[in-house]
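WARN retry 2 of 3 for item q-0093 after timeout on previous attempt; input resubmitted unchanged.
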Amino acid sequence: MHLSKIKLQEKDYPKALEIWEKCVIATHDFLKEKDILELKNEIPTYFKYVKAYLWFNDKEAIGFSGTNEKNLEMLFIDPKYFRNGYGTEILQYLIQENKVHYVDVNKDNHNAVKFYAKNGFKKYKESQKDGQGRNYPILHLKL
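OK item q-0093 returned
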């Protein structure tokens, strides 16, 4: 398995958003539709504040990531590439190269919680609301 990456640029935002939406529909069944629509509008505004990459396998874009200092702010994989090791490969790269040690994850996103635990992250704190004040509990994890 060989992944490559490019720095996410404004021209890539539609592709990243398409991946985000597919991933959220597949994994975030706890989100209300109005919140998904609001988030879809908010996500591009966050891209400016993170070190963001669009990740590719040999053929096409399979996901994107965003980090800020030691925090993993976003990691989304197209669902058709779930369970192929891509998420782990990207996460391990970000831990090694970008010194990522922290990630926040929706408590109700059980597969993501398991994924981060498998990669060495442990809960150190919990919030009852997400970063935008919505009623979605967040687990704060660290390596």
